[in-house]
Amino acid sequence: MALRWLMRKLDHVTLRDKSYRFLFEPGPPDEVVSIDCETTGLDPSRDEIISVAAIKIRGDRILASETFQAVVRPRVAIAAEAIKVHGLREIDVCNARPMIEIMPDLLRFIGGRPLIGYYIDFDIAMLNNDVAELLGIHLPNPRIEVSGIYYERKYGDAPPGTQIDLTFANILRDLNLPLFNQHDAFSDALMTAMIYVNLKDYVARDIRIARPRIKPSSDFHGM
Fold it and tell me: For residue 32, which of 193, 171, 202 has the smallest C-alpha distance?
């Protein structure tokens, strides 16, 4: 956390285009943005974004009318394994704009709001490649990981040896939320928003997520 705070301070000074100072200013009260990216692969050092979606959340309301969606033309080939996951092929993105052209609109959409995600560090790492190219900085926005909130609500008081399942589908199932078309950027951002709103309510009301009871082993009968 200290390193991230220091980087934020440094980035504020080295920001290449001062018209983007708004990124360092707090967003509207009680507003966050759920964000998701689909990519050419899983290596932030060489892969690129091919679709991105973001949805604003205000309090406990998902603002379906305030969304951002874009298909992106990457500069690298889409890995075959990635196509199997999200279904986006070269032909699907060849006429799209590059991320460097899309990024200004996305940055103005998210502003200084905290970013919500499922394994958000990966999405931000991918976004930072283009933010750095455009502005010479990394995204300064606070980030909130929904799997971390879920872990605390379900496993925070679990005994050692408890089996932990942080998969997206399992989180949705535990919260009685629908599973849409996973690995579509907009669907994933929407499901993540629903997870966040529900978990925020759980935290506010101090509701914990039930864990299956562990049946005692029948192999041990005592002395």
Answer: 193
CA distance 128 to 132: 6
Buried b (16+ CB within 10 A) or exposed e, 147-156: bebbbebbbe
* 131 within 8 A of 124, measured Cβ to Cβ: no
The partner residues of 80 in beta bridges, in order of sequence, read none
Residues whose CB falls within 8 Å of the CB of residue 65, separated by 6 or more in sequence, listed in order = none
Its pTM stands at 0.91
| Structural domains of the chain in order of their starting residue, each with its CATH number | 2-145 (3.30.420.10)
Contact between 141 and 110 under an 8 Å Cβ cutoff? The reply is: yes
Tens-digit pLDDT profile for residues 147-175: 999 999 999 999 999 999 999 999 999 99
CA distances from 116 to 49, 134, 172 (A): 18, 22, 16
